[in-house]
Amino acid sequence: LEASTGGPQRGLSRGLLAVREGPWVTVHDPGAATVPDPAVLPAPGEVHFGRWRLAAEETAAAPQPMSRRVLALATGAGPLEVRAAAAGETIDMGEGSKQVAEAMREAGVPARLRPAWPVVTAAGRMVWVVGCRVAAGAAARPGDPAVVVRASEVG
Questions:
Q1: CA geometry: angle 70, 118, 35, nearest 5 deg
Q2: Most Cβ neighbours (<10 Å): which of 8, 42, 76, 113?
Q3: What is the b/e burial string over 111-147, where b = at least 16 CB atoms within 10 angstroms of the residue's CB?
């Protein structure tokens, strides 16, 4: 059989599935991913979005280097929201744009997790596909005031 994720799958006991996702085999509940409701992310403050915790704090100087799980946005970027990406949504790459689903695929996000994967918007503009891609011009320059957003998986 072929899974909706494009890889072979096998049913296991207790209703679990073993699915090939790229070079890995995952074992999981085959139920559809629950998409959390969008949440406003205050700075300072934190929100939980499904299996993710995102925390924001203001800082006088943007840190360097950043990691895939840390983003420093220029102060004044606007209100932050954490949500799932809409079908067909894109992120600005500077000279063009990229489909968010493609950015997730390139970063190795399994297809079954993509519908509930967090993205961050500032004043309605997509600025970060968490752990995958930062929009062109969204990151604060090193040393400038910034809002630092940290993402971590909690379960």
A1: 160
A2: 113
A3: bbbbebbbbbbbeeebbbbbbbbbbeebbbeeeeebb
Q: Per the confidence metrics, is the pTM higher than 0.85?
A: no
Locus of tokens 């925390």:
55
Which residue type sits at 46? E
> How confident is residue 2, by pLDDT bands cut at 50, 70 and 90?
very low
Q: What is the model's pLDDT at position 3?
A: 41
Cα 115 from Cα 99, distance rounded (Å): 13
Question: CB–CB of 143/62 below 8 Å?
Answer: yes
Residues 94 and 120: beta-carbon distance below 8 Å: no
CA distance 60 to 68: 21
Place of tokens 């205050």: 42
Residue with tokens 């600005």: 92
Measured in degrees and rounded to the nearest 5, phi and psi for residue 11 equal -75, 140
Residue 126, CA distances (Å) to 15, 17, 49, 104 in order: 37, 33, 16, 14
Cβ neighbours, 10 Å, residue 9: 18
